[in-house]
Design a protein that fits this description.
single chain, 312 residues, alpha/beta, Rossmann fold, six-stranded mixed sheet, 12 helices, binds iron/sulfur cluster, binds zinc ion
């Protein structure tokens, strides 16, 4: 297999694009494509301040690397969740993120959930009985709340996350199987800012997971290989595996599934946009972030419940 650009020996073959590239041209191609997606979906400009949510994994570290190489003003945010795996997942991912920031001379915000709110994610989940024994719902709620808080307090225009095509296609697959119209309407490369909520973007949403792994390795980025110990057995993993089987038989299935969805949604063929909740949004009485609940947002209610139970 030869590189399409220079004819040297290829190091990656992307069947869905009918294209193979050598290492050097692949390392050029990924940022070029990212720039193209940023423009195509109007994600942000070079004047805007970007906050990248970094977990220490290949996607978020690569995203940060790419944005900085492209000349964007991108700082990082690491959230310490207090999750222990066999390898002490949180500590190791924190260490790798700090190291990446230091080596590249970048600004990193660190929020340790336990220091900030008195409880780690697994404890919050246990005492509030949310999520049927898995901390993922508390974790997701906390991540959204904290990312938005840091963006607001430090004046960032936009929040960027490292979701890749495999992530997006799996979520889309799940939402389609359930016909969750509200979720489907909100899924896309850009979630525009709303009252009190920063704009959210996913610049890597058109790259396959294996392309991002190849990028991180070719670039020499040290990242945490282990997934969060709670990710295993999650429904999303099952959707990913199912889509991989389809992809093996027909290369390009995932990309077509996702892109055709975006087209159909944009053209209004799929759903009629409704704005039913917009009128009831107001600031939470405690933290000031937008909510449609009567007084406190769901994050602050979760914290209240946790302190009732623990007395802390
Ligand atoms: Fe949080 Fe881990 Fe669940 Fe992901 S898998 S939402 S990191 S607890
Ligand atoms: Zn609140």
């Amino acid at each position: 297999m030869k590189c399409k650009k220079c004819g040297e020996r290829a190091s990656i073959n992307m069947r869905q694009h009918r294209m193979a590239l050598c290492k050097d041209h692949f390392l050029e191609w990924i940022p070029e494509q990212t720039e193209r997606f940023i423009k195509k979906y109007n994600m942000f400009t070079r004047d805007e301040k970007i906050l990248v949510a970094v977990s220490g994994g290949k996607d978020s570290l690569s995203l940060w690397d790419i944005l900085v190489r492209l000349g964007y003003k991108a700082d990082g945010l690491y959230l310490g969740l207090g999750i222990d795996g066999g390898v002490n997942y949180s500590n190791e991912s924190h260490r790798l993120t700090e190291e990446f920031a230091r080596a590249n001379n970048l600004t990193l915000h660190v929020v340790d959930v336990e220091k900030e709110y008195g409880h780690s994610i697994p404890v919050l989940s246990e005492v509030t009985h949310r999520g049927y024994g898995k901390p993922c719902s508390v974790c997701g709620l906390t991540k959204r709340h904290e990312m938005n808080r840091i963006a607001r307090d430090f004046g960032y225009d936009v929040l960027a996350t490292g979701h890749n095509l495999d992530d997006e296609a799996a979520v889309l697959f799940g939402n389609t199987l359930q016909w969750s119209a509200d979720y489907l309407l909100r899924q896309g490369p850009v979630l525009p800012s709303a009252e009190g909520l920063a704009r959210k973007v996913k610049p890597l949403c058109r790259f396959y997971e294996r392309e991002m792994t190849a990028y991180a390795i070719a670039r020499g980025i040290e990242y945490i290989y282990d997934e969060c110990p709670f990710a295993e057995g999650a429904t999303q993993v099952f959707y990913k595996e199912s889509l991989n089987q389809l992809e093996n038989v027909r290369p390009g299935t995932k990309l077509t599934f996702y892109l055709r969805f975006l087209d159909a949604r944009q053209s209004g063929e799929l759903f009629v946009q409704r704005d039913k909740d917009a009128a009831h949004i107001h600031p939470c009485a405690k933290c000031g972030q937008p909510t449609s609940a009567p007084e406190l947002c769901s994050f602050c209610r979760m914290l209240e419940k946790a302190s009732e139970v623990t007395g802390l």
